[in-house]
Amino acid sequence: MTGGYTLIGRNASPYTRRVAVTLRLLDQPFEQIKLAPSRDAEAVRAYNPAGRVPVLLLPDGERLTDSGFIIDYLLETHDLWGRLLAPRGPRRRRALQRLALVLTAQEKAAYAVRASRQRPPGSEASPFETALRSQARTAFGLLDESLADLPAPEGEAELSQDAIAAAIATSFARAADPLLLEGLSLPRLEALTARLEAMPAFLAQPLEAP
């Protein structure tokens, strides 16, 4: 590899997609090798022995794994003024609290979808799957409430990591299982997601079918 970064993973993963969108917003050129652990296990393990994506290959050959760690590196390296995540103070704390809610909602949604796809067609959801779906819905509801004090971004220059992650998680949940959030009132999340998905960085890195 020469020049810029190489990102391993498909945008079906909200974790990979968040890294890809962040790279776009930071104006960092990168190549994306679209591998999925479920169908490209051996190829993924060649980049990460744990068999997980995303993986970011740095220009010097170093490999970073875990989306949170990758984004922390990118912000530390390319966002010195803290545009995408405030470096300190109340704004940073609120953003990190929202990010924690995003990760909970996203994780519970992903596990619920996986459990649903693994059960026989026509069978009822297990108590475990039902609990996961309930936890995901609760987390998305709390996330929507937490957006009350987040100004609606008018353009990419006003985006923050918590808003980016919230929109990506919502799009993922809707696409992975349209019934997961059915009937749940999420006015702030829906408005934020629609606004961000229409922005160039998101359009350049569209969600792939989960």
From TrEMBL:
InterPro entries: Glutathione_S-Trfase_N, Thioredoxin-like_sf
Domain GST N-terminal: 3-82
Keywords, sorted A to Z: Transferase
Keyword Secreted recorded: no
Molecular functions per Gene Ontology: transferase activity
A Pfam family per the record: GST_N_3
Domain of life according to the entry: Bacteria
Transferase listed as a keyword: yes
PANTHER family the record matches: GLUTATHIONE S-TRANSFERASE GSTA, GLUTATHIONE S-TRANSFERASE-RELATED
Name assigned to this protein: Glutathione S-transferase
